[in-house]
Design a protein that fits this description.
The protein is an alpha/beta fold and 317 residues long. 38% of the residues lie in helices and 16% in strands. Residues 29-286 form the NADP-dependent oxidoreductase domain.
Length: 317
């Protein structure tokens, strides 16, 4: 697969709730945390994405009211289900009560009860638009990849016409995906897609993603900008230099590098404002130098342990 066929999509992690771990999130929101203001902002970013040709939108039950905001936008704009791809996730519950400084923002729960409850909540909001339902941050430690009751339920959903995927998180993304690829339910592979973190700082999952692609899974990349650590003044000097040569922002350059990988199908933008979205979209303007930039920027890669340790220290703002 070439970069030309890689889709740019919009993830709603930073749009559906007042607090998130993207660097500069508070400044982007400008202190406007009221739910109505957040919904209006979400719609503005969704409008910008739609006008830019983006047709894939990714949410989750734990993204505050992201599914609700997305659903209201789809209805208001009268977009037909066949004209858009909507993916969402289950496995975390949002518990911050709309507070930025909450002691806990989400609770992980990969139980059968959580799946049964949350899939109905997602269907109730997104209805016929829901195109892919993913396990949110499947890890070896959570036990979900060995929970036959949960896997059987996911197989039922798959057989009922809802494609099933998984997203990954943490320093053991690679091992978790390798384990997931061995899973079959009803004599058939369970997963249709995998969503993982891959960027200039964190590349450890790449071998497993290559194997997933070989097996026919759709490969989706999240956190391509490392939660803002590859944007603007936060970006390493080497990335700033490459972006200057390409005459785009560091965000567009970092996204273009991901889009240049032949095994990537979908790359998520985490834009919080229409201006950020338009800056991200400029990744499409970067020519084949994006692929070459991977080699020139190879020294930026960190160990998985270091990357995820640093990510865990990012504040919710």
């Amino acid at each position: 697969m070439t970069r030309a066929t890689t889709q740019l999509a919009l993830g709603l992690a930073a749009l559906g709730r007042p607090g998130y771990i993207t660097v500069g999130h508070a400044e982007d929101l400008g202190g406007h945390y009221d739910a109505a203001a957040m919904e209006q902002r979400s719609h503005a970013v969704l409008d910008a994405a739609w006008d830019a040709g983006i047709r894939w939108f990714d949410a989750a039950r734990s993204y505050g009211r992201a599914e609700e905001f997305l659903a209201s936008w789809l209805r208001t704009r009268k977009i037909a289900p066949g004209d858009v791809t909507v993916s969402s996730k289950w496995g975390y519950t949002y518990v911050a009560n709309w507070q930025v400084n909450a002691k806990q923002h989400e609770i992980k729960d990969h139980s059968l009860a959580a799946l049964t409850r949350q899939v109905e909540e997602s269907k109730g909001l997104l209805g016929p638009y829901l195109s892919l339902y993913q396990v949110h941050s499947a890890t070896l430690e959570s036990g979900i990849l060995d929970d036959r009751a949960v896997l059987s339920k996911l197989g039922e959903l798959r057989d009922g016409g809802l494609p099933i995927g998984l997203s990954l998180s943490g320093a053991r993304q690679r091992e978790a995906l390798e384990r997931a690829l061995t899973i079959e339910v009803g004599g058939k592979p369970l997963w249709s897609a995998v969503q993982a973190t891959w960027n200039l700082l964190e590349r450890s999952v790449e071998p497993a993603l290559l194997e997933a692609k070989r097996r026919g899974l759709r490969v989706m990349i999240k956190e391509a900008l490392a939660n803002g650590r590859l944007v603007g003044t936060y970006a390493p000097e080497a990335l700033r230099n490459e972006a200057a040569r390409a005459k785009v922002g560091t965000d567009a350059m970092a996204l273009a590098v991901v889009m240049a990988q032949p095994w990537v199908d979908v790359v998520l933008s985490g834009a919080t404002t229409p201006a950020q979205l338009l800056d991200n979209v400029r990744a499409r303007e970067v020519d084949g130098s994006a692929a070459a930039a991977v080699s020139s920027l190879a020294s930026l890669a960190q160990t998985a342990d270091r990357y995820w340790a640093e990510r865990s220290k990012l504040p919710w703002t």
